[in-house]
Amino acid sequence: MKLVRLTMTNFGKWQDKHIDFQKDLTLVYGNNEAGKTTLHHFIQTMLFGFPKRRKSFRDYEPRQGGLFGGSLTIEVANYGEIRIERYKSINRGKAQVTLADGQEITEEELMVLLSPLTAELFSEVFSLQQEQLRELKYLTEEKLQELLLAVGMTGSKKIVTVKSTLNKQEQALYKPTGRLPLINLKLKEYETIRSQVIKKTQMERQYQQQRQDLATKEQVLQDSQAKLSELKSEEQLIAQQITAFPLWQERQHLQKQLGKDGFSDIDEVSKLYQDYQFVKKEEENYLVKQKNELERSQATPAYLFYLENQVGIEKLTSQQNRMEQNRQQIKWLETRVSQRENETEQLLAELPELAIQGRYFPELLEQEQLKVLAQQEDSCHFNLQQQERHFDQVLSEIEEEAGRSKKVTEKNSQQRLGQLFGIGAAVFLLIGLSCLFLKLFLIGGLSVLASFVLLLLKGKGKAQLSPEKATSLNEKEGLLENIAEEIEKIQRELKSLQEQKQRLAETYQFKLEQSVSQWLLELPQRGQLVRVVEELASLKGELTEGQRELNSYRQEFSFMKEWLPIATSSDEELLTALTNFVAEMSQRSLALNQAGQSLTTWQEPLAELAKRRETLTVRLYSFLPAGVTHSMDNVQRLLFENQQRSHQAAELAKLSLQVDQLFNDQQDYQLATLVTIKGKLKEEIPDLIRKQQEQSRAIEKLRFLIQQQESDGTLRELYQTEANLETELRELINQWYDNRLGDEILQATLDQLAKSQLPDLLRTTTAFFKLLTAERFVEVSYEGDELLLKDQQGLDYEVKELSTGSRDQLYMAIRLGFIQLHSQESLSPVIIDDGWLHYDSQRKQQLFRLLKQLSCDNQIICLSSDSELLAFMEDENEGIIVL
């Protein structure tokens, strides 16, 4: 990222100030208070926003008012020029960012675009100020070394500052050999208190035991008191239940009476029943008149019955076709049920020991699990067979090779030993004969004896394997062990699979001795059995419903039992008989009409009355509770019972108020049981009271003894002091751990950075330091955790041996070296604010040449009032902005 131009609308002393940065090395020149530092803060504000008001920060807001802010144009790789405009009073100080193509982006997107550059990184790494050099004068050698390394690794001193702060806090809390740190003081105090507590505790073991006994007895007494209170409450309740038991019995009786089925709307039922009686009476009057008329007309009893029940007969006739269809459907269903039952029996014969009442067909997901399990099982069995064959093969080879080697070895050994023993026997025999000839009988005898012994040993030798054969056998024995381990592993897998099989076999009725692959072969038959059983259940349900409807239809014939053979006829015969009866009565009616004996005068009124009676009957029956037979007797009975309910309900409510708090509706009570319980409670309560009195006396005695030992309060105070110290120490130790951990993390970070970046940094720093010192120093190295500077004569110098100016130059070389190492990232321009004021002319010229060299890869902006730098910039034709 590079700065292109800026406009300070109102910022500090500047109003409508425009500056263009045309060169990569630019000097902003001006005397003190000319506004150079203001320019620096303006650039940072435009990039990262207005800082929050703090006493330590200078406020650049103009006193004369106006828009506080301005604009800054930067150039970013891959994005071109980007204009950032920011005013504190507009949009809460957020930036308005415009890309090169005119597109506007948010401030959050600007931060992403600038990343990893942050305000802190801009201030700590890419800004060099003279105050940083002044701080070097007051650092010890160790701290200076650490600072220079941190600056070289991270570009700033912040990590050293934080590490130093953590280390100081850590030392202030604890030192292994310290006396004044807070944790050391608290530990000493804690040891003193702890020893006092132990001493006091040892002296008061009896006191501790008494306290424990007191707590136990108090808990026992508390439990006993709770139990006594419970028993007294129970006794009082039992006494009240015994007194109110007759009332409870009466309430139970009334609840049973009121619990019987009745009408939900008694008023409507009463009105309907009155209408029903009126219609029935009218119908009876008409029937009497009709009967008299029919008797005079000489009509047959069957015809009289037909006329009297014509409405019911017509109803049966209207349902005749539907019932015939129902009958045919039942015949078809019976055939299908029989077929499916046969199929079920055949499938069960193919799947013996299968109970269709349980589960026997897995779901789709479990079928997939079975397939996977089958593959695993088959694979394990195959691998097991392969390994067992391999095991037998290797074992046979070992036995064969061992036997062959033994024979060869025995044969060779015997031959060699035989030769040696033969030669030895001949030698000893020759020596013995010579000694005997020379009359050395003892030596001669022993030699002859030795020859005989060697002859006896001839041909005998110990069999040994050759090294090559032994090595081959060892390799095969090792292979045999590996195969055995593999077989054991496969057997463990098979055991695990067997456990899964057992669960599945118990769930779905598979045979455990079969393989899972055989189970899968049964699935089509089991699936077919599921479908057949489901269809059979559905067919049986339809058959039952059809038969129920047909039986209900037959029951409606009951009023015609004197004229039709209901009991002895089949459904088909009954329907035929009904058809014939209706046809016969129709012919007789036609014949009577032709004879002038018309009886239609009574038919219409009777039909109307019968229709009204039927309607009222249906409505009355609809009010009957479920399970009650539909009859007028039941209607009349329930009407009477309902009239008695109001009085019973009032009585029940009165009794409930008296007994609801005493009795549980979900429990049955017996008077004898209640009396027995009350008698047991009367015996248990006094005994419990007596035990409580004994416990109270024992507790009072223990309290008196403990109070005597606690009269000085020493132990209690020691305990409290110890607890307080433990809490303080825990908090201080946690704080010390936090500081120590942070210190170690930062040190580890520096060490890691030193390993990864130190070589490159030292090379760059050497080049820069060599240039800054006019080649007085030619090398910067790091040996034994220490920076060393080598001069032209090859002499090494420690940092503490450098002059103040050389220290400053080393610091500047390290800072600029870090920036040069990261120049390819082009994160930010480098802004240097009078970092060389106390340099002499030669050192300044060397620094200026280094900055010019560094500007080839980085944009560098110098804020200075140094006339020598101004002259250098003019000679080198670099950018100059005069404030």
TrEMBL record:
Coiled coil: 200-241, 280-343, 473-556
Name of the protein in its database record: YhaN AAA domain-containing protein
Signal peptide coordinates: none
Species this protein is from: Vagococcus salmoninarum
Superkingdom of the organism of origin: Bacteria
Residue stretches making up the YhaN AAA domain: 1-201
Pfam families linked to this entry: AAA_27
InterPro entries listed in its UniProt record: P-loop_NTPase (IPR027417), YhaN_AAA (IPR038734)
Keywords, comma-separated and alphabetical: Coiled coil, Membrane, Transmembrane, Transmembrane helix
Transmembrane domains' residue ranges: 417-434, 440-457
